[in-house]
Amino acid sequence: SLGSWFLLVESAIIIALLFLVVVFCSAQLSVIALKYEIVPQKKMSIIVAGFIFAVAAVVGTVLFGQEGYTARNQAGLGLIIIPAVISIPLQYVMFGTVFDSLPQATFVLIGLEVLGYVIAVVGFALCVSACPPLHGSVVIAGLAIMAIANLLSLAYVFIMGSRMKDHPRPGKAVEEPLN
């Protein structure tokens, strides 16, 4: 178990992609928090989920970045890949905050993120039992798809939010008093 489990470039790309997913998710949350009123309870649950995801990412990175092919490295890769599932329901909740009736584009973006997650998990399963990992590119591809989906989601919320800046949220009728 001397040497590195993954090539240094592969490890760096995996870690960078994970943190891109975290950053894009956090940026989307910030855009939504600044543009829309969010119920404090919902805001707190989104923040807690994002915090858990970020902590798992940091701990996973520390364990994954160590030398050798050990149970710690495997656990680290698991903490990088498995908690990434948090970003999927988080994405749904954030879209639900912006749109009362989710447009098809949001389901496509969530579906793209699910696809990326499934590919990353398959890559993790293929890599965890191999040294050197023969399918590190599968993990990278899955995380890259997730990062792209989060970036597109951020852009979608930002663009749609700016279009609706002077308009009420879709589906929210402005209620007039009956008097």
Automatic annotation (TrEMBL):
The keyword Transmembrane helix applies. One of its GO terms (molecular function) is thrombospondin receptor activity. GO terms for biological process: positive regulation of cell-cell adhesion; positive regulation of inflammatory response; positive regulation of phagocytosis. Pfam families: CD47. One of its GO terms (cellular component) is extracellular exosome. InterPro entries: CD47, CD47-like_TM. Keywords: Membrane, Transmembrane, Transmembrane helix. PANTHER family: LEUKOCYTE SURFACE ANTIGEN CD47. This is Leukocyte surface antigen CD47. It comes from Apaloderma vittatum.
